[in-house]
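Hey, can you fold this one?
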Amino acid sequence: MSDERKELEEQVFKWIEIADEDLLLAKHAFTLSSNIPYRLICYHAQQCAEKYLKAFLVSRMIDFPYTHNLEALVNLCEKEIKIKKRLKVIFILSQFAAAKRYPGEYRNATKDDAIEAVKLAELTKQVIGEILEKDGFHFYERDK
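Sure. Predicted structure:
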């Protein structure tokens, strides 16, 4: 394996690692006995989806802007591989990127919002994970 490929894989794996941490934290929050922070579950689900999309973009060496807008990121991915049809449902997660963490446009997320957000993060992980696996990024083997 070339040094360039090894460095690229390391960058992709870093994005995946922190994406998986966001998803783990989002899921774990449901186990709290009280005061479950549904708003933060939604935020971490959005972060997971965002980071998986960025992992794909890094894998294809596509520059991306500093953005939390999932539609913009999917549109960049779309130039490489047709995924918009499968992932357009995740665009609603963008609302949880920042506005829900600060007063102003703040509204509490519901349990249903949080459950749906985690499902959408898992969908993003599945879709992007399948593509990365086909591209030779076998990140699940790294944990063994």
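The chain has a mean pLDDT of 87. Let me know if you want another pass with a different chain boundary.
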